[in-house]
Automatic annotation (TrEMBL):
<feature type="transmembrane region" description="Helical">
    <location>
        <begin position="74"/>
        <end position="97"/>
    </location>
</feature>
<keyword id="KW-0472">Membrane</keyword>
<protein>
    <submittedName>
        <fullName>Uncharacterized protein</fullName>
    </submittedName>
</protein>
<feature type="transmembrane region" description="Helical">
    <location>
        <begin position="12"/>
        <end position="34"/>
    </location>
</feature>
<keyword id="KW-1133">Transmembrane helix</keyword>
<feature type="transmembrane region" description="Helical">
    <location>
        <begin position="46"/>
        <end position="68"/>
    </location>
</feature>
<keyword id="KW-0812">Transmembrane</keyword>
Amino acid sequence: MESFILNSIGLLVMVLALGLPILFIGTIALVSILYFQYHEHHLHNVIPMVIISQGITLLLTAALYALVFKDLPLLIGKVMIPATIIEIIVIPATLLFKGYDISKILPSY
């Protein structure tokens, strides 16, 4: 039991350390989408969304790494692939969950 907890904490620290650039880019992307597309200027609405989405991203990245990327390369250059995949999924899901229309951020053809 203790080794499971230590392994889980070690996995979260590794994901946080290696995925920090992607988490930072995801934070900037979410804040800019909220600010420029939805004109959300109130910090009390933006900050909880960013914290929740980045927490979900961190947990899902650790789960994806533990389940799928254990034997595959984790980094390509300085980009953590599992974190990138999860950020692409979590940001629109967070916006949908809060009731925003994500068709505004998608290009219309």
